[in-house]
């Protein structure tokens, strides 16, 4: 992957983490055990420090950055959806930031909380554990239900399994001209959207 040191400070990646080859890591970036960092992620530790802790995932096209002297942190089992932007904020343990959400400087998202897709979380915002945060500007809508927390945790577990799947079998290849007659499907687990009817 494109990995750059700046002023002698280089990224650190735990060997059990998976970082996609198209992700870009610059400077003071720390990626912990069993993390997943997706395609086209930008982790710019050229001003502040970027920390992604054990079991967390940062999905494709996410951006993390911070002002000088600040950290942008995703705590253990954090879950950062496609296209989210995290700037100088802390996403606490087992919390989720939805697709294309923006979380600004000094904000702190409480443990096991969910920030809804496309939310804009203002600088300095804080919330209690197990909060549903949505809107622009974002506000706490209500406390999460146990089944919503369970759904989030199941999704994070699938990304932890994806880390293992990528280590085991992801490799660059040439595309086929047409699909095989007996084409297999990927073993993607059983995670479903929260609104999907129960089987």
Question: What distinguishing features does this structure have?
Answer:
1 helix; 19 strands; 199 residues; 11-stranded parallel β-sheet; 8-stranded mixed β-sheet; mainly beta; 32% strand
Tell me what you see in this structure:
The protein is mainly beta and 199 residues long. The chain has one helix and 19 strands. It has one helix spanning 146-169, and strands spanning 3-4, 12-13, 18-19, 24-31, 36-37, 42-52, 57-58, 63-65, 71-74, 79-80, 85-87, 90-91, 96-97, 102-103, 108-109, 114-115, 120-121, 131-135, 138-143. The longest helix has 24 residues, at 146-169. The radius of gyration is 17 Å and the shape is globular.
Gist?
The protein has 199 residues and is mainly beta.
Low-pLDDT residue intervals, each spanning 5 or more residues: none
General form:
globular
* Portion in strands: 25-35%
Major sheet details: 11 strands, parallel
Helix content: 10-25%
Radius of gyration: 17 Å
Topology:
Blueprint: E1 3-4, E2 12-13, E3 18-19, E4 24-31, E5 36-37, E6 42-52, E7 57-58, E8 63-65, E9 71-74, E10 79-80, E11 85-87, E12 90-91, E13 96-97, E14 102-103, E15 108-109, E16 114-115, E17 120-121, E18 131-135, E19 138-143, H1 146-169
Parallel strand pairs: 1-4, 2-4, 3-5, 4-6, 5-7, 6-8, 6-9, 7-10, 8-11, 9-12, 10-13, 11-14, 12-15, 13-16, 14-17, 16-18
Antiparallel strand pairs: 18-19
């Amino acid at each position: 992957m494109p990995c750059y040191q700046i002023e002698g400070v280089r990224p650190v990646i735990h060997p059990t983490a998976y970082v996609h080859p198209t992700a870009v890591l610059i400077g003071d970036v720390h990626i912990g055990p069993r993390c997943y960092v997706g395609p086209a992620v930008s982790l710019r530790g050229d001003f502040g420090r970027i920390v992604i802790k054990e079991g967390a995932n940062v999905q494709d096209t996410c951006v993390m950055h911070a002002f000088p002297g600040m950290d942008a942190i995703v705590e253990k089992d954090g879950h950062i959806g496609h296209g989210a932007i995290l700037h100088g904020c802390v996403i606490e343990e087992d919390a989720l930031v939805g697709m294309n959400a923006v979380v600004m400087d000094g904000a702190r998202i409480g443990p096991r909380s969910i920030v809804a897709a496309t939310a804009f979380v203002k600088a300095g915002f804080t919330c209690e554990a197990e909060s549903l945060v949505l809107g622009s500007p974002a506000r706490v809508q209500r406390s999460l239900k146990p089944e919503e927390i369970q759904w989030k945790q199941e999704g994070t577990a699938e990304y932890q399994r994806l880390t293992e799947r990528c280590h085991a079998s992801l490799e660059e290849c040439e595309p086929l001209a047409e699909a095989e007659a007996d084409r297999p499907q990927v073993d993607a687990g059983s995670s479903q959207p929260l609104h999907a009817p129960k089987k």
